[in-house]
Amino acid sequence: MKNIKELAHIPFYSDEKLTLFIDGSNFYATAKALDLDIDYKALLGWATNQGRLTRAYYYTALSEDQDYSPIKPLTDWLGYNGFTMVTKPTKEFTDERGRKKIKGNMDIELAVGMMETADHTDHIILFSGDGDFRPLVEAVQRKGVRVTIVSTIKSNPPMISDDLRRQADYFLDLVDLAGYITRDQTEEKAA
């Protein structure tokens, strides 16, 4: 298997400070669209091999009203295994047609975190294809931070906004990274 540095044509430097920002709901939807089972321990290992990993942030909204939330075991595990969890409770509301909806957007929290971190990191890897992050990426680039976006163009429809992809210094398709961070691939390597 090729070295990821060769595979993606992304220059990673062993002395650079890396920070991961994972938009939980967007990353989950991207992995699901590609039928990938992410191994978060392997993801941290991959990032650690690319440079000096300073922090791995995972952003998600959690429902506090439910007895059981399917994301709760994942967020608990991540919190105990090297990820900095940034969560907030979801909000339930009724739309104009009287349908109950749940809202849990974490874009502002992620944007604030990235701006606060920009002065203390060299390279940000953002796991999201959300076009709303294009101005944020541009802002941290003006501070001298390189930004790699991880999402996919290989799903139908693509999970990344064209504007975000153009703004990024580098784009890494999740399909190309899958061999390093998915459960099927990492379990095969261990066997």
Tell me the layout of helices and strands.
Blueprint: H1 4-8, E1 17-23, H2 24-33, H3 40-50, E2 52-62, H4 72-80, E3 84-89, E4 91-94, E5 100-103, H5 107-117, E6 123-127, H6 134-142, E7 146-151, H7 162-167, E8 170-173, H8 174-181, H9 183-190
Parallel strand pairs: 1-2, 1-6, 2-3, 6-7, 7-8
Antiparallel strand pairs: 4-5
Helix pairs in contact: 8-9
Tags for this model:
about 40% helix; two-stranded antiparallel ribbon; six-stranded parallel β-sheet; about 190 residues; alpha/beta; single chain; Rossmann fold
CATH architecture: 3-Layer(aba) Sandwich
Helix share bin:
40-55%
- Cα(first) to Cα(last) distance is 16 Å
The rounded Rg comes to 17 Å
Mean pLDDT: 88
Strand content: 15-25%
Shape: globular
Number of helices, where a helix is a run of at least 4 consecutive DSSP H or I residues: 9
Main CATH class: Alpha Beta
Order of helices and strands: HEHHEHEEEHEHEHEHH
